Amino acid sequence: MKPISLLVTTKFAPPRLSSQAVPRDALISRLNEARHHRLVLITGSAGFGKTTVLTHWRMELLKDGATVSWLSLNAEDDAPEVFCAGLIGALQKMGVALEDHVLLLDSKDEDWRQAVCAVLINALDRDNAEKYLMIDDFHHISNPTTLSLIQALVDNAPATFHLMLATRQACPLLLGRTRAMGELCEIDSSELTFTFRESYAFLKSHLNAAIDLETAHSIHDLTNGWPIGLQLLAITLKSKPGNQPGQQLLSSSNLGAYLSEDVVHDLPPELLEFMQKLSILRRFNVELAAHVCDIDNAADMIAMLEARNLFVQPVDLQERYQWYRWHPMFADFLGQRLAESTHDIRQLHLRAAEWFNREALYPEAIRHALLSEDFSNVVQIIQDALPTVSSLSHFGTYMRWIERVPPDLLARRPRLMLISAWIAAITGHLERARELAGTLASSRLSLLQVRYINLLHAVIAILGEDAETALATVRTVGDAPLGHPFFECFRTGVTVGALAYLGRYGEARSEFNAPNARVVHTQDTELALVNRSAFASVAWLEGNMLEAERSCAAILALAEAGYGRRSLSASTIATLMAGILYETDRIDDAREMLTKRLNVLHFSAPEYMYCATVTYARLQCLQESPQAALEYLVKQQAHFRHIGRDHGVVLALAEQVNITLKLGDRRHASSLQATLDDLATPPHGSACCQLSIQSVAALSRARLALASDKPEQALQALEEAHRFGLQLNRGVLLVKADILRALALNELKRDAQAHLSLSTAIASGYRLGLMRTFLDEGEALYELLLNLDEQKEAAVEEYRQQLLRQLAIGVHQSHAKTSMDKNDNPEALLLTKREKEILALVEQTMSNKRIALALNISEQTVKWNLKNIFIKLGVSSRYEAISAARRIAQ
Question: Which of 43, 159, 421, 490 is the most exposed place for a label (fewest CB within 10 A)?
């Protein structure tokens, strides 16, 4: 009997691919590009789909007529003679003429390797046909003689022979020369991980074809794209269909069994113990691992983890440490094993807290101190950490940590209570801030701490929309140094903000440029940037859009560059910028400014929440539909009512009145106005806030009166609005009142007065840089503006002509929309300039990514505009959109 015949035939057959297997197009494309390389090395932890990818590629190669052979290895194949038998069998399967007598050579003979290599290489070189050998589970090979045989094949086999190795561990072969010659293709776990698109395809195929995107994203994030993790989670969810994907499902028996039996069962006990202890850490390095585990050979242990590819992933090099992290599902598995062990987990957390605190990595230090339940340590770390905080987004986390400190311990720490009160105020928990500040008032405080308390009360007042109290209180703090940039920033921000809200813009600018405001100008912390934006608010409230944009753009650029687009500082300042962009009629830019930022501002300062709400609703009304805007405003109205913000409720109601009037539903608008008037009646504490609310109600009442053909009533309401505008010194409010007054006077045939009122509005609008304040009035204003006499100043007249041109476009689109509604002809609806640009690039078969790059916008904006294009043209695909656009052009 031939020795080869003793081998199990399945060693030469790859596993059968499921009909539901997810195509790995990107990986297969990469492998096809490397099909002429000498060696392809696929390295990844268990369950990352190495075998599946090789199997897919084998099928692709076979379709192209290539000669491919397969060899699966196990632990027994490490012996040289056994491996050699499998290798010869695999080569014979691809037609290489080899005799079994090669196996009769003594593997202990020092010339054995050379003899076998010579036979194999000569046999492979007998023809010029391309041959591919795929060896799976190569990590079972560690015998030096066996490895030297493979090394010789890699180094000396003919160029027509291509070797593919799939392994869980770092390959022990010497590959420097092969890599340098460009003959090596390497694929690791990061490339084997499923993309979201692949995860989504897998879940649709294996779990539920109708799975929604949010659930798919949740599962993809939980598994981090680990293929076997997705499969095990899908099995668990199938068996428990009522459950939502969550961390509890990651600890399913399926996962535990898989990892126990296939990954850790043969690990050295000391290595497994080391791994379990490190599972308490979200990231680790050699020094931290040594300290937590109290060992001296942590570097060797981590090297073993990397060599065995045990789900440990290097993180980008930071400062002097090379950090690592576990795959989340594997970390959960190790954590369960640690919990079931006899190790003192509390002591591990204490040691971790000690190391992180020593390195000034405070968030992680506090996390481990909390988990150790050593609250005295927690308090000390929090007090050490807070002076270093520069990111506003961290304050919410600190608040949650402080809330876990026992009240009696907190009461003995006045400094920490003061910090807690400040954080509560900053994060919008004003009642909690007042409670803590009241407790502190009865404590023995230094004179400086008393000033901090007074400043805190001023912050609480400004966040409560009581500008008068805020200004009076911040004055008691005085101008003397406060000893820390944190408090200096707030003193300037509150003073400037309160003066601006009260309409005292000159004083606000003076305070912003005063010597004690230097910190706000010189520092670029998130805190400084948000307080610096108070200066942009001065121009915004005044109505000066040109100055507001200059100030806001500069601060926003610093916030995005320093802290990221979705940071709290950038998101806060972006809402103001979005309002400015909307007012200056840069609609797409305004929408882009708010994209994926609204949720960050759910509990922000009032003026930013209000600006974001009104701007976003108006954008929806313009770019989506009035119904979408109304739904959003109803939701925001409920939110503002829930958090006790009557001003926000009033603004949401006023916008709803305006939209419903445009839709012709006066009955519903009257109902909304009644609610609005009720809210505007009672006092709201601050006289300035009360005036703001009453001005919104008065303008809205005037609109309803105009729509109801009651111009006299409209004029009465506008007199109130104008009076409030003068008291508040609000430029936009006064311009709106003048515009509506002109419309009411025109209805009464009082042409001279109407033209005078409109001319006043145009002159102010030109000076302030307003556009949408006029354009949003639509066709009624267009007719009046068209009949207005030429303005005396050339610049103001050019501004009037610009308004007419923009209003004409809006009127045209409105008529086209009416035609569409009546004639069912959606192609008659005009596209915006941005939509036309995108459609032209779609016609050139550009992808969304390329379109985004070409127009310098985000992919999200491209997708959003395409959605609008499809709706407007009544189509469902790019091809149909192009065809419809061509018909319109003709």
Answer: 159
